[in-house]
TrEMBL record:
Transmembrane regions: 41-61, 82-103, 109-127, 139-162, 168-186, 198-219, 271-297, 309-328, 340-357, 363-385
Name the record gives this protein: O-antigen/teichoic acid export membrane protein
Organism placement in taxonomy: Bacteria, Bacillati, Actinomycetota, Actinomycetes, Micromonosporales
Keywords, alphabetical: Membrane, Transmembrane, Transmembrane helix
Length: 404
């Protein structure tokens, strides 16, 4: 009972930290829209989008460190952290000058956003160490610290009327200052560090898997922007709020399960899928029973009439919630290209929407649901094959030992 209680406390703490992080990320554009000129707000929104993509490296580093640590115990992570930071900085150095010219971004604001992003990438190391050690209460505190560093400084600057550049300067400072706090949270005096350091390709694999999950789950929103008239694309954007809610609501389960998945615990995988699936089923049922209310809460009373589409949006997110769990299981098991099916599904979704389906809210929404079902089917099949193969290998090893 005590163990269940501690798991529940850890889950609640991680959930609260996730809500705080997402809330701060939401507040930045809300405050920016009210405090900045239209031109400066456009710059802020563009920089947030660009740095969010590069920031996927932080999640990749966190997952790779957590998996390696859960499997091998405390191991050196400095080299992989430096190389990941260098790769992120290199990507920014390549992209930012082009963006400054093509997107007409101011140089000081762009540089400050890059500095903040590199700090966020570095944070992935200590978050991964705490997650791999299953120290979920310090992890929750660390997630809150990272969110405060990444977004809190910018929010404070904007709220005080400091302007775009000064707000980003404050944000860069808080992002860097968050790192020593994370290091203190992750520190375990007297715990020896031993073994091999984390392979760089493990960080790349985890980062690519996270990026693929984001791309495939956001592809329909981008397609709606391209193919629907403004009013309809706005309505579709409101629907995707339900998709993201169903996708991210159960992600605390994946965070808690990852260390056990790295140790090959099949029971954790089954239980995790059951919990994520149950959460998705609940949200889809709620959307079916109160679709108008769901759209009203997501976008306001003007969208309440679109409630009939709520179940398909929620079902798409529920499927991707299961996909995210399965992809993390593949990463934890050391699969080489776990993100490959998601890239293929994304390409097929783009082709189908571009060439085949009606360019309506329903047409794109059902296409996105079909893509989610396809992604779930393929990733589920790959996990099942891996589990069956591992059972066969173990049986073969046991038979060989018994013969000897």
């Amino acid at each position: 009972m005590a163990k269940l209680s501690s798991i529940g406390t850890a889950g609640l703490a991680v959930t609260v930290a996730g809500v705080l992080a997402n809330g701060l990320a939401y507040i930045v554009p809300v405050v920016g829209a009210r405090r900045l000129t239209a031109a400066d707000f456009s710059v802020l929104a563009t920089l947030l989008a660009m740095t969010a993509i590069v920031g996927v490296a932080s999640t990749g580093l966190q997952i790779a460190v957590a998996v390696h640590r859960a499997r091998n115990g405390p191991s050196p992570a400095g080299r992989s952290t430096v190389l990941t930071m260098a790769a992120a900085a290199g990507a920014l150095l390549l992209v930012m000058p082009v963006a400054v010219v093509v997107l007409r971004l101011p140089v000081p604001a762009t540089l400050l956003a890059a500095v903040s992003t590199v700090g966020v990438v570095a944070a992935g190391r200590w978050l991964g160490e705490m997650q791999g050690d299953e120290r979920f209460l310090p992890l929750a505190a660390g997630l809150a610290v990272v969110a405060g560093g990444r977004y809190g400084g910018v929010v404070l600057g904007l709220a005080a009327g400091a302007g775009l550049t000064t707000s980003l300067l404050i944000g860069a400072a808080t992002a860097i200052l968050a790192l020593p706090v994370l290091q203190l949270l992750a520190r375990r005096p007297g715990t020896p560090v031993h073994g091999e350091s984390i392979a760089v390709h493990a960080v790349f694999t985890a980062g690519a898997a996270t990026l693929a999950t984001l791309v495939v789950s956001y592809a329909d929103l981008l397609l709606s922007r391209r193919f629907l008239p403004p009013d309809a694309s706005g309505a579709y954007a409101v629907g995707t709020v339900l998709t993201k809610g169903a996708l991210w609501a159960p992600q605390v389960v994946t965070v808690l399960a990852l260390p056990r998945l790295a140790q090959g615990d099949r029971r954790t995988l089954r239980l995790g899928l059951l919990l994520v699936g149950a959460c998705g089923a609940f949200l889809v049922t709620a959307a079916a029973l109160a679709g108008g209310l769901a759209f009203r809460l997501a976008g306001g009373p003007d969208y309440a009439g679109l409630g009939r589409y709520a179940p398909v949006f929620a079902a798409t997110g529920a499927c991707y919630g299961l996909v995210f769990m399965l992809i993390n299981a593949q990463v934890a098991a050391g699969a080489r290209w776990p993100s490959a099916p998601l890239w293929v599904v994304t390409a097929l979704l783009v082709a189908v929407v571009w060439l085949a389906v009606p360019h309506t809210v329903a047409g794109i929404a059902w296409s996105a649901f079909g893509a989610a079902v396809a992604a779930l089917t393929v990733t589920g099949a790959l996990v099942a094959v891996r589990l069956r193969t591992s059972v066969t290998e173990r049986q073969s090893e046991s038979a060989t030992l018994s013969v000897e």
